[in-house]
Amino acid sequence: TNKTIFITGASRGIGAAAARFFAAGGAHVVLAARSIAALQSLATEIEGTGGQALAVACDVADYGQVDAAVAKAMDRFGSVDVLINNAGLIEPIARIEDSDPAAWAKVANVNLTGAYNALRAVLPGMVRRKTGTVINISSGAATGALEGWSHYCATKAGLLSLTRCADKELREKGIRVMGLSPGTVATEMQVQIRASGINPVSQLDPGVHKPVEWIAQALGYLAGDGGDAYLGTDFVLKTEEALRE
Ligand code: NJP
Questions:
Q1: Among 34, 65, 70, which residue has the most ligand 1 atoms within 8 Å of its CB, making it the best to mutate?
Q2: What pLDDT does 227 receive?
Q3: Is the pLDDT of residue 237 over 90?
Q4: Does the Cβ of 106 fall within 6 Å of ligand 1?
């Protein structure tokens, strides 16, 4: 299809894999993150294989930057049809008593407010066209309680709640808001988790490190016309009744 897919956190890991996957299927991809050099090199790679990609530098924690990035996407491709809220971080991992308040706030501003920012920025166009798809990448941590992960667990739980609220408001306007909990995926984030020494082996999905391509395929399913579901960490497809209560 020639849909435009706006992907946050596209400079590496799951976001970069999703960009390659959607571009290979003919979509126009907008690559958003802070590391502009990595985004530009991915855009060049995608364009080299006949795809269309736009790299936009943006810190999702800053609404002005997100809004400007969406405006650039609209200028280049005319619309944003699918938003994938994938940008996220877990560092620094620390028990609450040892944690730095500013670092905790930064995680909240990326994992939760960042997703709100991108949703808020793409919505006027989606409401105008009466169609759109938003996929928020949450985590099994949303329902877990892991030492040193208070920032991550709390913000991923908040992101699921944002998903439910947004879906309730927007479904009747033709916009689907869905969630995906990838489970344990082989990316830089897992390297950081192991290095922290706190919960070094994921307790959420022990022993399994899914390749990023699996997550990209799951996103493809959700973004497709048939996708109207929530994918849990076990990767068993299930319609999450809670999302549509
Ligand atoms: O992580 P990683 P993943 N503004 O660290 C970007 C969730 N998840 O691919 O800005 C904009 O390789 C950063 O780009 P840059 C996880 O919580 C993962 O594993 O250039 N972008 C980079 O592209 C997250 O939501 C696992 O540094 C910002 C990307 O985010 C998503 O999957 C399990 C940013 C992070 O790439 C992708 O994570 C699970 C900012 N302020 C959920 N800050 C797992 N890996 O096991 C960071 O359940 N980024």
A1: 34
A2: 64
A3: no
A4: no
**Which structural domain range is residue 36 located in?**
4-244
Q: Is the CB of 87 under 6 A from ligand 1?
A: yes
> What is the number of structural domains in the chain?
1
- For residue 107, what are the contacts with CB-CB under 8 A and spacing of at least 6? 89, 90, 151, 152, 155
In angstroms, what is the span from residue 235 Cα to ligand 1's centroid?
A: 19
Contact 161, 213 (CB under 8 A): no
**What's the mean pLDDT when you consider all of the chain?**
89
- In the DSSP assignment, the letter for residue 75 is H
- Let me know if 152 is a catalytic residue: yes
Tens digits of per-residue pLDDT, 47-84? 999 999 999 999 999 999 999 999 999 999 999 999 99
> Does ligand 1 lie within 6 Å of residue 179's CB atom?
no
Collect contacts of 145-150 with beta carbons under 8 A, ≥24 apart: 146/199, 146/203, 146/204, 147/95, 147/198, 147/199, 148/93, 148/94, 148/95, 148/196, 148/198, 148/199, 149/90, 149/93, 149/198, 149/199, 150/95, 150/96, 150/99, 150/104
Pocket test for ligand 1, best of 6, 7, 8, 12 (most atoms within 8 A of CB): 12
Q: What is the CATH number of the domain that holds 87?
A: 3.40.50.720
Say if residue 235's pLDDT is above 50. Answer: no
Q: Span 159-172, mean pLDDT?
A: 91
Task: Indicate whether this complex's ipTM tops 0.95.
Answer: yes
pLDDT value at position 225?
A: 72
